[in-house]
Amino acid sequence: MDADHDGAISREEAGNSKLSSLFDSADDDRDGLLDEEEYGLAYRVITQRHPENTQRRRTMIEKGGPFD
Ligand SMILES: [Ca+2]
Ligand SMILES: [Ca+2]
Q1: Which ligand approaches the C-alpha of residue 39 most closely?
Q2: What are phi and psi of 10, to 5 degrees?
Q3: Residue 35, C-beta contacts closer than 8 angstroms, at least 6 positions apart
Q4: What is the rounded CA–CA span in Å between residue 38 and residue 21?
Q5: d(CA 1, CA 34)
Q6: Quick check: 30 and 40 in contact, CB under 8 A?
Q7: pLDDT of residue 53
Q8: What is the pLDDT of residues 4-63, one digit of tens each?
Q9: How far is the CA of 61 from the centre of ligand 1 (A)?
């Protein structure tokens, strides 16, 4: 994700990923970049939520219902 390898994730690099919705809350010092520590925190939040979302999406697909 760190496209320019500067050791931090810019909003542009976060793009349309799950990280972008967490970007503001993850950017603790408001410098517009997620450094390793900030990104690590956001990543934990994302991965903690991920299994739950995957399971829910799978259930919806099995039922033939709408999914995002
Ligand atoms: Ca970068
Ligand atoms: Ca920051």
Answers
A1: 2
A2: -85, 165
A3: 7, 8
A4: 14
A5: 11
A6: no
A7: 63
A8: 999 999 999 999 988 999 999 999 999 999 999 999 999 998 888 656 666 777 777 787
A9: 35
* CA of residue 23 to ligand 1 center, whole Å: 13
How does DSSP classify residue 6?
S
Give me ligand 2 centre to Cα 6, in Å. 13
Domain locations in the chain as residue ranges: 9-62
Q: Which two tokens stand for residue 41?
A: 């925190």
**pTM of the complete model:** 0.67
How many C-beta neighbours within 10 Å does residue 14 have? 21
- Please, is 52 exposed, middle or buried when counting C-beta atoms within 10 Å of its C-beta (0-12, 13-18, 19+)? exposed
Instruction: Measure the CA–CA gap between 10 and 60, rounded to whole angstroms.
Output: 33
